[in-house]
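Continuing the series of single-chain predictions for the mutant panel. This is the parent chain; the variants come on the following pages.
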Amino acid sequence: MSETATTAAMRVTPGGVSGIKRLFIVFAVGFLAATGAAANSFLLCYMAAMLLLLPAVSFLMGRRAVRGIRVTRTAPESVWTGDAVEITLSVQGGSGMLYPLLRVRDELPTALQPDGDLEAQVTAGADGARATYSALVRRRGVHRFDRAVAMASDPLGVVDFHLSLPAETLIVAYPRPEPIQWLSLPGAERYGAVDMARATARGAGVDPDGARPYEPGDPLRRMHWRATARTGVLNVKEFEEARSLSALLVLDCWSGVPGGEAEDGPFEVMVRAAASLASMWLASGAAVGLACGLELGPAFGVARGSAHLLAQLDALAHAAPKDPRRLADALPAVAGLTHPGVTLVALTADPSPDLVRTCTQLASAGVGLQMIYATTGAALAAAPAAWLGSVTEAPPLVVSSGPGLPLQLQGVGGVLRAA
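Parent structure:
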């Protein structure tokens, strides 16, 4: 849980109906004073003085209600995009007797949508005074809370006191993996990508795959006696060996990527697709790595397991289009750090001719490569067909989505390459 607490200066504003209340007090004081003077009544003059003193006492009470207040915000450190989170503002200091006059209001980041009113009455209990509200996380990323406001009205409601509290709290919103079509990668027959991907190998597997002639060195326990009797030649059992897919997702984080700052732009589609593919492959037992441009952190290593998935989702939550280099320049550098047999899956929204040349060079060097072009269009027509058709060495896929739409992974020309 993340907690922050600070103090700040006070601001005074008129109350909601302060004008009517002030007018009533002035009228009542004047009426009592005039009547007391006319009737020569000391009691009426004393009542006028007490009534005149009442706003001052009320003002001091309201001011004291927020003086010395400290607010601590408690919120989850990490959440899933689309979740509703509960945030608590705890109050310490000040005068506990005046907490009934106190309210708190939070100032949310733009990516969080309040569920109801952000202004809440402070309630005191055995575990302290606090106010709780909930908010919906609409977008992945690192969301920063900057300020909270403690407010109190004087008992007469003539003025309101605001104590602005700079309170920095961070919430990391992971992109939520979505269902997406299974992607069969280049090199699957060689390195494995079938179901969990299988490639025929001799000896080490557990699933029978027919018989083959005996070769010196084959263990006798693998003799296939039925085939030997039928053919008159020594035969041994052949087996399949399962090999896991190894892939490295490379996210185009170039600062000039089209729609990089848009809330539902192509960059966000790339992030959603990377999270979904990584989750799907890791759930099937594959080994997956992630590179956000040239930023190589804990998620870069091609590995397995749920802990590695969380590292990748955290990297995607922090991902932003801020890399000065285009993917065409960054991709060879990343490819040089990978092991043989690892397929590069490059996600981009930048139809650059240089990227076509880079793909051709990497494919000629024997690097397994799959290009995925991201678009916000609901159909393939939104993608630049001429550019997509020119990437012949690694025929690209198109991943598309839009506000409220699921991810769609399609092949160029309407041919689905995702099984």
